[in-house]
Design goal:
Blueprint: H1 2-16, H2 21-27, H3 35-42, E1 47-52, H4 63-66, E2 74-82, E3 85-92, E4 100-105
Length: about 110
Amino acid sequence: MRTKVITLLMLSIFSAGPGSEEERTSQSVQVGQTKQEIRTVLGEPQEKNINIRVERSIWGPEEEFWHKIPLNSEFEVWKYRNEEGNLNLYFIDDDDKLDYKGFSPNGVVYESVH
């Protein structure tokens, strides 16, 4: 019995792992994974949107890849929220594999600079 309790305690400590929930969530999803693989890891997104890229620029974590999405292309965004912030997953032109991901921590405000 004592061995089982120690084993369960050690498993719970190691499965929690280091880092915040956001780090574990964001790191558990990689570009190139399929939608089904992502659902297996994170579950269904809290929100899904279909958009068309018409904006030339954007502010926030998407800045690093926004220029790679062709103008007038359609993309789907899956949104996951937790107490750390928002994880957005981008699927371009009806692709089944994740093309880009961006995370914005709660409390961070992005604004344009003219």
